[in-house]
Amino acid sequence: MTLLTPDHLRVKEEARAFAAAHIIPRAAEHDRSGEFHPWLLEAASASRIFSMAVPRELGGLDYDALTQALVLEEWGYACAGMGTTLAASVLAQDSVLVAGTEEQKRRFFEPILAGGIGAFGLTEPNAGSDAGSGKSTAIKDGDDYILNGSKCWITNGGFASVFVIYALTDPAKGMKGLSAFIVEKGRPGFTIGTVDHKLGIRSSNTVELLFKDVRIPAANLLGKEGEGMKIAMKTLDMARPAIAALSVGLAQRALDACVEHLHHRYPDPRRQPGQNLQFKLADMRIEIEAARQLLHHTMLLRDAGAPYSVESAMAKTNCADVAMRVTSQAVQLMGSYGYTSELSKYMRDAKIMQIYEGTNQIQRLVISRAVLAPAPAAAQKGGH
Ligand SMILES: Cc1cc2nc3c(=O)[nH]c(=O)nc-3n(C[C@H](O)[C@H](O)[C@H](O)COP(=O)(O)OP(=O)(O)OC[C@H]3O[C@@H](n4cnc5c(N)ncnc54)[C@H](O)[C@@H]3O)c2cc1C
């Protein structure tokens, strides 16, 4: 098990206390209503947790990657939907950390520091896994770009103060013509659509973004024209472990709920249905702990400045798959009670972990390419 420092443990405890006081009591209500509500941002404002990735010199909490993962595990435990709100805001900030100038960072982070959230818009109706085939354009016009097109399934979009939007500055070049922009809420021509239904993470806000001749100053371009795909890929490397952390928290919650139910259902341990069930609980525990350790290892690599791109993909894939298996197993072990109670939320919430921020199939493509890459002279088999 990762040996956490006193600072890590303190932040983890604070996140757990916040989740217990604010998130857990309202998670089921928001799952039923399918609505995000900004009370979450108000409740979180005192702790400034939405600035956890913002550098200290810009006024943020500046948590290292492992600390961010510990916080997100607690939020995932409490409610994966509200955890997604936090993770998606950090995802948008990561693009600015990757490619923003100091002036752009100050401007982008200002609303976050004031208690707002960010949103990241890459996906389009025909450009999900194949992010480079998007159709939205941002065409230069004097000192501005004119943005046209749409983005779909964008987390936080209805409540975000500030967005990072990817659009083609040179459509003829395809993905090599993709660029990234800061887009502030409320620009004329920028409207928000809806998403009618979600299987899980129903307390998070997911919307469509629509752009009709939206004027954006050239000062909002992140990096250079044509660097959008590179910025998006680096951003997602940084951000995918957040999904791993939510997944670990979610899986742990399902296991804890399952154990609590079994104690209640079989107060006399002699009447528990035998080793088959107990071994399943043991397997769930093993899977969760192994997933958590892969995540922590990935975060320690990032904090040490070492390459972590493949580990990021492995952590996301493994933790999301574990969340799906464990939550499904928990429902199975609880029988019809699991299927019909609010506990089925965990299984519904788990499915998206395998889909957003790059599906698990796409992560397996990345990982298999690394496995098959020619080994350097001093072969490094097995990651040693
Ligand atoms: C609740 C929710 C929140 C989201 N939040 C955001 C957000 O904040 N910002 C944002 O930009 N996007 C967001 N998304 C979009 C999400 O990231 C994409 O849906 C995801 O990347 C998959 O794209 P797709 O749905 O177009 O699936 P597709 O790309 O159409 O894939 C469909 C299936 O085919 C498989 N597949 C596709 N290509 C390959 C391949 N080459 N090899 C093997 N299998 C393949 C996929 O794995 C998947 O199983 C969100 C989506 C949801 C549902």
From TrEMBL:
Protein name: Cyclohexane-1-carbonyl-CoA dehydrogenase
Entry EC number(s): 1.3.8.11
Acyl-CoA oxidase/dehydrogenase middle domain segment(s): 119-214
Family: Belongs to the acyl-CoA dehydrogenase family.
UniProt cross-references to PROSITE patterns, sorted A to Z: ACYL_COA_DH_1 (PS00072)
Chain ranges of the Acyl-CoA dehydrogenase/oxidase N-terminal domain: 5-115
Cofactor(s) demanded: FAD
UniProtKB keywords: FAD, Flavoprotein, Oxidoreductase
Species in which this protein is naturally found: Mesoterricola sediminis
Pfam families, per the entry: Acyl-CoA_dh_1 (PF00441), Acyl-CoA_dh_M (PF02770), Acyl-CoA_dh_N (PF02771)
Enzyme class: oxidoreductase
GO molecular function, one term: flavin adenine dinucleotide binding
Acyl-CoA dehydrogenase/oxidase C-terminal domain boundaries: 226-372
